[in-house]
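Example 3.2
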Amino acid sequence: MTRFNSWIIPILVIILLVGSLITFEAFAEKSMQLDRQESITSKTESDLRESNAQLRAESAAHGKTSTALQETTEKLKTLEQENSSLKVKLQAKQERESRRPPNLYAYGNCTWYVKEKVPYIGGTWGNASSWLASAKSDGFEVGEDPRQGAIGVAFEGYYGHVVLVESVNKDGSVTISEMNNSALGGFNIVSTRIASSQSFKYIYT
């Protein structure tokens, strides 16, 4: 019995040591697997954050592009509308200029002179004081801002007075030509002078 105990105890110790070593190796392997999984998980989370940041950046860029595209489209629509309006005005002007109504105004008066200078305007617009309304009725644009080549209408006296704008000066005044200005020769006399642009309403020819 004593001999048996002398060799069985070392064997048991060896078995325990081998078991402990196997358990330790298994634990170490499991720990390494966990470390690898944590590393993979960490990298995946980092990749996901980068992907989300990239998606947000692309979304913002797309939003800016969409806004710019919308603004460009609206500008193009505005330009097309303005171009269409200009075409209509140009066509109307060409149609007016193709007509040459006879000059039925009294010879030597301001109305006769302006009609001679701008032959495609109406020949029966009446006295100068009624020209603005008559021109507007005939499709001419009217306004208060002077332009070279425009007809100036002054509502002075009973008959009024019309002139032709030869140029618009830097100080806002206008150089005009006219006929039958009593202060500058009167009947059938053409004269030129500088006047305040606010003295007239304008018919744009």
